[in-house]
Each structure stands twice: as structure tokens, then as C-alpha cells.
Amino acid sequence: MNKKKVYILEDRGVLFVQGLDAKEFLQNIITNDINKVNETNSCFASLLTPQGKYLFDFLIVKHKNGYLIDCEKLQTENLYNQLDLYKLRSKVEILNLSNEFVVAAISYEKFLEFDGAKNIQGLTIKYREDPIFLDPRKKELGARIIINLEKLYLSLKKLDLNASNIDDYYKFSHEIGIAQKNTDQLKNKIFGIECNFEELNGIDFKKGCYVGQENTARIKLKNKMSKRLFPIELVKGQIEDDIIKYNNNEIGRILIKNKFPFASIKYLNENFDIKKEFKCGNATVKVIKPSWIK
Predict the structure, then answer these.
(1) Burial environment of residue 257 by CB neighbours within 10 A (0 to 12, 13 to 18, 19 or more)
(2) Beta strands 162-163 and 5-9: pairing type?
(3) Which residues in the chain are classed under CATH 3.30.1360.120?
(4) Residue 4 contacts residue 96 (beta carbons within 8 Å)
(5) Does domain 226-294 have CATH number 3.30.310?
(6) How far is CA 8 from each of CA 12, 73, 156, 178, rounded to the nearest angstrom?
(7) Is 279 exposed, middle or buried (0-12, 13-18, 19+ CB in 10 A)?
(8) What is the pLDDT of residues 73-110, one digit of tens each?
(9) pTM, rounded to two decimals
């Protein structure tokens, strides 16, 4: 990522959770430990089905008397409704601030120029009262600013940042193996732990109960994970089918079919070899194994 560039992620939404029970409310449902989130640290987390399947993933930032939730805008309304469903009698207020706040991404190198910035994933500082945090998943993704839309362009000018094509940001994210686009296509199709959330610092196995915790812990403790979410590179053709094969043996399925595709891959299968090319209908594809996955 270029130090002079900023990616205005207009496809991200922002929710705000506040109230007397906000902390306990989030702690009881998300995969990460909300106690990690404070004025100087943010986290990555997810919300799963009771069976441990993927529903949503998001970044959580402490802000004033509550928590900002940075999520894919396509999923904002559904995430709002899911949180509202779990709220019951809790003293919690959930607001959709997507029309007031915007998310922007800057490079890791640019982040380190801010006063108080350090090479610590999730580290959160303030710039003109707005939170800036080093991505808690991988520092290669740079840092994010959650900022009031009215202040955005003046702040970018003061920081000497030039707005760039957000596809460049998502292309880089795809290349390093982190799905951020069209993640609604993962819903109920893959376990959260199979989305590599442990490696992306999104699951805390010490925090206790949360929605989907039982199956997530069982897969981890019994070493039963045989599939993982990997990025797919299109070699030729067009991805129309979802089954990935080698010598007529299924080794995976395409789950995200947009221009930054991801698939659930049976990476321990004897027919899988990261160096091979595979058939997916009439298309030929390669599987990218991120360097951070063993």
C-alpha cells in the first residue's frame, strides 16, 4: 500500500452499540473478548449461528460511551436486526450511523507517522477525536479511520492523502487471503473457524461462552478442521460452477463468486496440491494459500 494513498471504503457500514449493558451484551454473542477493546485497542470478531457457522464478521472500536462496529455495508441491516434480536431486555441501544460516518484505509507506513502510533495490531489512537487503528487481522492491511463524513476531506487534505480506487485495496486483501467483499455469500455455508478467524485474531478460546462456541471449540480441540477458506485465482475461463475438482475428485467449493473469489478448500485432501491447477466447471483455477496459514 502506498503511503500517500487512502482508500475511502464507501462499501463499509458503521453501527454503534451503547448503553449500560453494551459490553456484557457483546461479550455474550461475539467470538472475541470484548474486554480487549478499549480506547487504545480494537479487535476483529464475528457472529456465528448456534451451530458455529458464519453469519457476520466486523471490527470493533471503542468510541465515547459505546462501540463502533465496522462491517460490510451490504450486511449492515441484517447485522442490525440480528443484534436487535439478541438484545431482549438488555439496556442497549443500537444505531446505524452509516450515513454519518465513513471508513477509510491507509497504509501501515502512514499509520506509524501519527503521534503515539506503534507496530501493534489493533493499536488505536485518535486524530481530531476520530479513531485510527492498525488492522487487528494483519498489519499488511494498514490502518483504518472511522470518521464523520463532514470531516473526511478536510482531514485527508491535512494528512496529505490522495483518494485511490478501492478495488486496489480489495485486490491486495484478496491476494493476502482475507475476504472482505460479498461475505454474505458465506452465510451458513462454512464454520467460522474454517474462515481462518483464529489466525486473524478473531476468536478467543479463553473467553467462555458465546453463540456458536461449543462447535467452534470442538473443532479446535479435536483437530477436526479439514477445510479452510482460501482465495482463488482464475487462470482461464469464467467461474460459473461452484465445485472445484482434480481428476473428478471434489477438493473444494466456490463460496464467494465476485471478482475476488474465495472457496472452501479441503486442504488436507490427498488430491489437493497447492502447485496444481484445478477445474471449476469450464474454468481453470489456482488456489492461493496465504503465507500466514501453516
Answers:
(1) middle
(2) parallel
(3) 5-175
(4) no
(5) no
(6) 9, 13, 10, 18
(7) middle
(8) 999 999 999 999 999 889 999 999 999 999 999 999 99
(9) 0.95
